[in-house]
Amino acid sequence: SFSIALFPQDGRVGTGLGSAAPTPRRAYDAENYLAAELEWDGALDPRVSEEFGRLVSAAASPIDDVRGTADYRKHALSVMARRTLGWAWRDLTAARKVA
């Protein structure tokens, strides 16, 4: 599982990874990268989203088991991270339009 929190007021990003390691963890490198690269008042750059997904995947250390391989889990986590970022960004920009 993957979660993200965007804090535009102070330019911070938080992440949470579940079932991607022996214990829940954060993707600190991905958080720092995204916080530095986001144009908080602009559009979400697809290249930034792609690199963010790669960094989230790199933070994981899943295992192989009967439900899937570690490689599959890392790939799925990258996809989930990119999609979740897109949804969070959409919600953030929609909230700005209402305010």
Structural commentary:
This protein is an alpha+beta fold. It has a single domain, classed as Enolase-like, domain 1, CATH 3.30.390. The protein is built from 3 helices and 2 strands. Strands 1-2 form a two-stranded antiparallel ribbon. α2 packs across α3. The longest helix is centred in the last third of the chain and has 29 residues. It starts with a strand and ends with a helix.
Report the span from N to C terminus.
31 Å
Quote the CATH topology. Answer: Enolase-like, domain 1
Which strand order do you get reading across the main beta sheet? Answer: 1-2
Average pLDDT, rounded to a whole number, is 96
Could you give the count of β-strands? 2
Shape: elongated
Question: How would you summarize this macromolecular structure in one to three sentences?
Answer:
The protein has 99 residues and is an alpha+beta fold. Helix content is 54%, strand content 12%. It has a single domain (2-94), classed as 2-Layer Sandwich (Enolase-like, domain 1), CATH 3.30.390.
Topology, element by element:
Blueprint lengths: L1 E6 L4 E6 L10 H10 L8 H14 L10 H29 L1
Antiparallel strand pairs: 1-2
List its traits.
Enolase-like, domain 1, 99 residues, 54% helix, 12% strand, two-stranded antiparallel ribbon, alpha+beta, single chain, 3 helices
